[in-house]
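Hi all, a correction to my earlier message: I attached the wrong file for tRNA-splicing ligase RtcB. Here's the right sequence:
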Amino acid sequence: MTTREFGDVRLRKVREHVWEIPREDGMNVPARVFASESLLEAIGEDDTLTQLRNATHLPGMTKYALCMPDGHQGYGFPVGGVGAIDAEEGCISPGAIGYDINCGVRMVKTNLEYGDVRGREEELVNALFDRIPSGLGGGGIVTGDSDTVEAILERGVEWAIDAGYGVESDLEHCEDEGRRPDARPEFVPQKAKDRGRNQIGSLGSGNHFLEVQRVTDVFRKGVADAYGLEPGQIVVLIHCGSRGLGHQTCTDYLRRIEKRHGDLLEELPDKELAAAPAGSELAYEYYGAMCAAINYAWVNRQLITHRTRTVFGEIFDADPIDDLGMELLYDVAHNIAKRETHVVDGEERDLYVHRKGATRAFPAGREEIPEVYRDVGQPVIIPGSMGAGSYVLRGGENSLDVSFGSTAHGAGRLMSRTQAKRDFWGGDVQDDLKEQEHVYVKAQSGATIAEEAPGVYKDVDEVVDVSDALGIGDTVARTFPVCNIKG
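and the right structure:
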């Protein structure tokens, strides 16, 4: 039996691409890592494995704590982590969800072909950068008063459609139809609401982006047909979250939980795993506030979609929907906890499934999937770096048994932002992408481009290959960047 050691963490190989940290004192369950040999080497270079082992100490953790193939060190709980925790006897942990609540991705299809945008890349990237707010701080497509923010937190994408920022079909092509019904705006801290008021419809900074892409490969034609994807097609990928509102919500609840539930905190190996016991007042309030922040993030991406449609309509002198076919393929979250029912050891159990830098990947037949995709499986969107492809997957038939219906969320970082700025110069990265790959990038600063250089990320092809081999997320199509805007 193959074993590997990284510091004081020992793993044994269960089968191809599956590595287990055996249960030891204090661990409620074992932990598992889904990775190839080379991806495991990268994952073992930081504190990811220690954080994953620590996560098994959370009360109610069920079956395994999991790390997806794009995993890397996070705040307390690893990015790429999945933890399914008993919803009655366990807990809910803000650190196992992340500060950017409902950071997620959506893909917008078009009926344009790559040839339609060749020679117009600079015009397109400049127009998108000028019209879509990005960067640190405030500034959004909509500046909302308190009533507007409350409505967004309560109703999600429904609010945006009623306000004229989309079409009805956007609802059915969004996870949960763009609205978490458990949202409780009254539990979102006022400071969070104040921060969110002037950021509605903005990319933010860091790894968030809007990228125009072309479909380069189709691997499962029947599924691609159901998704409306074909080689040469132009699509748009949008990646952002709940901005300052989500960050402030997470921050405030972490502090409150640390004070209120210090007894539980003392039992955990890392205070950054601070959790509220299921059934407690704080667990109820945090879940309601988190769901409201989820709604805010969906509206954020919806408004960016609306503005993107407007820009495309102006540049190509056509109606974005009727002429350009700019319909939403899907929107899926990857920083979220949801109460879901799963079969564990032959019995149905209600679980808080924490996905932090991990994507829901339900197989065909699951009722949560939009009806239009229910026969083929849920779309899963996996962004790569600016110099590599991205992928569309579908939820694999093994995902419920292997990963609580989850897979990776992207390529996953290899390098810290600080190290990236030491190793790369933003202007050089920008020039190389344009000259060598014909990818046009525009950002608020060269530092942002350096932080997001292609060399900063793992090999997205390998990440996706692991997902496909395990049957948790099946490859459907691959895309490649045309132009990209960042904060």
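Sorry for the mix-up. The two ends are 47 Å apart (CA to CA).
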